[in-house]
What does this fold into?
Amino acid sequence: MNIRLLNSNENYPLELLLLADPSRQLVEEYLKRGQCYVAEIDHQIVGVYVLLPTRPETIEVVNIAVSEVMQGKGIGRQLVTHAIETARIQGYKTLEIGTGNSSIGQLALYQKCGFRIVGVDLEFFVRHNYVEEIYENGIQCRDMIRMSQDL
It folds into this structure.
């Protein structure tokens, strides 16, 4: 598998990005300011993440997704590890990531990769007017769990 920065002349893998964030408007907004990385196997994009500088010395993973047929194969962990190393190489001191309260697998993965819970953004997924309510693992996704790690 190869993970690389998406070239400026390439289209964003919007279908993949919308797996992690169903708000097309939010995705398009942060893509304008972020760095989009893709994971490829045999020249086919199977994963994606977006890094977005937020404050001095701080950058956030604002989207990370793996194609549904490739989930459970360790690609998500490789993307997270790549994001950590990329942020470190770029000189950032803190890497942040957020996920929904219902995203049990992601919460476990991020903690295994060294992230710690630093806060909860209550009603995040309600305030941002997603077209449909989001449910995962039989739980309504309402709150953003904010996580961080020092690099």
